[in-house]
Amino acid sequence: MLRALAATLLAMLLRIALTALMALRALRRNKLRSSLTALGIIIGVFAVVAMVAIGNGARESIQAQVANLGQNMLVVFAGSRRSAGVNQGLGSASAITLQDAAAMRREIPAVTAFSPEVSATAQVIANGRNWSTTVAGEAPEYLQVRDWQLSAGAMFTDRDVSRAAKVGVIGSKTARELFGPLDPLQQTVRIGNIPFVIIGVLDSKGAGVGGQDQDDRILIPFSTAMERITGDKYLRSVYLQISDAAHMQSAEEQVTRLLRQRHRLSPGTDDDFNIFNQKEIADTVATVTSSLTLLLGAIAGLSLVVGGIGIMNIMLVSVTERTREIGIRISVGAQPADIRAQFLIEAVTLSLLGGLLGVVLALGAAHLVSALSSNFKAIVTSGSVVLAFVVSFVIGVFFGYYPARRASLLDPIEALRYE
């Protein structure tokens, strides 16, 4: 019994192999037509994989920029102020004090580091050069909050803050503009008419979320900035680092309650501050970019449908052209299932070859885009490649089945008479 079963299985495999061989020979006889038929699938798969890669790259790029701001960070901004009917933007209102910042650090358990901030744009002079840059007054914990490292030197200390020391940490771009190839450490720069000694150099961070160059700045103690540079009595913002991403939402709610209480805001009164929640921004970016990637993939997927229709069209033409051949095969013993399998194999082969070439082209295009752009990388995932092959196979079966079935149902006598 086992021998009979093995013989039957072997005969079935042999029959399938012969059918596949005949299908491949038929495709080889019409190389140009087969190539043009596969072109629709090639373009479709290329478009889908390339669009998904671009969407993935955009998501990674934006998420990297958000993460570049720091880890688990809340930023509390002063509200906006209106002057002569003009809204002057976030941070323009006089609302957040140093006492507010100290209270947030002291009374909210999830806050592990903080940095009050005031800032201004100032003309900086050093080494016979001048440069307009951002001068930011910060606390020593600013680097911890922003997950920022120093390439040289050291950060100013709490003692520097308490005595309003005239020391600064310079960004890499500002250092290049003022000192060129020279080492900026222990060099003196004049901010306005006030000399500051450079004690540290920031690592390069590149552009931020808004496109602003984060390396074009000088950090000084916030007390020094408020007393000697800006003259502000209020803070523009406060950076808060939260111990864990799971505590971000609760920390934001605690900050809101604390500031409303300290500012004596009655129920129903709008907040005179705004809170930037990094996790919410990252989650929103992930949702938007994922939706965009899905939309791009769906639009590109329409070309796959067009390619499938092209396969069906050519296969129907092929059935008509090979009617007599089909009749001869049936008359010498081929079963309808053999005829159906032959045409299905032809359709699936065209579709899979098109899918393979489309993936190869998409990989090449993604590599080229990544090589030409220093800030953006198209990301081709294994999932999108597998999906492309699965879709190619399904299209080959779906659009090849009707022509294959039509071929298998031909009457052998009528087929032999066909001219």
What brief labels describe this structure?
alpha+beta, 13 helices, 12 strands, 57% helix, 17% strand
Any chance you could write out the topology, listing elements then pairs?
Layout: H1 2-29, H2 31-67, E1 73-78, E2 82-83, E3 86-87, H3 98-107, E4 111-126, E5 129-138, H4 142-145, E6 150-153, H5 158-162, E7 167-170, H6 172-179, E8 188-191, E9 194-202, E10 217-221, H7 222-229, E11 237-242, H8 248-262, E12 273-277, H9 278-321, H10 323-331, H11 336-372, H12 382-408, H13 412-417
Parallel strand pairs: 5-10, 7-9
Antiparallel strand pairs: 1-11, 1-12, 2-3, 4-5, 4-8, 4-11, 6-9, 7-10, 8-9
Biggest β-sheet description: 6 strands, mixed, barrel
Helix count, DSSP H or I runs of 4 or more residues: 13
Which radius of gyration do the C-alpha atoms yield? Answer: 34 Å
Beta-strand percent range: 15-25%
User: Structural class of the helices, strands and pairings?
Assistant: alpha+beta
H and E string:
HHEEEHEEHEHEHEEEHEHEHHHHH
Q: Measure the end-to-end span.
A: 47 Å
Describe this structure in words.
The chain is α+β, with helices and mostly antiparallel strands. It has two domains: 19-65 and 284-417, no CATH class; 73-243, no CATH class. Helix content is 57%, strand content 17%. It has a six-stranded mixed β-barrel. The chain has a two-stranded antiparallel ribbon with strand order 2-3. Strand 8 and strand 9 form a beta hairpin. It starts with a helix and ends with a helix.
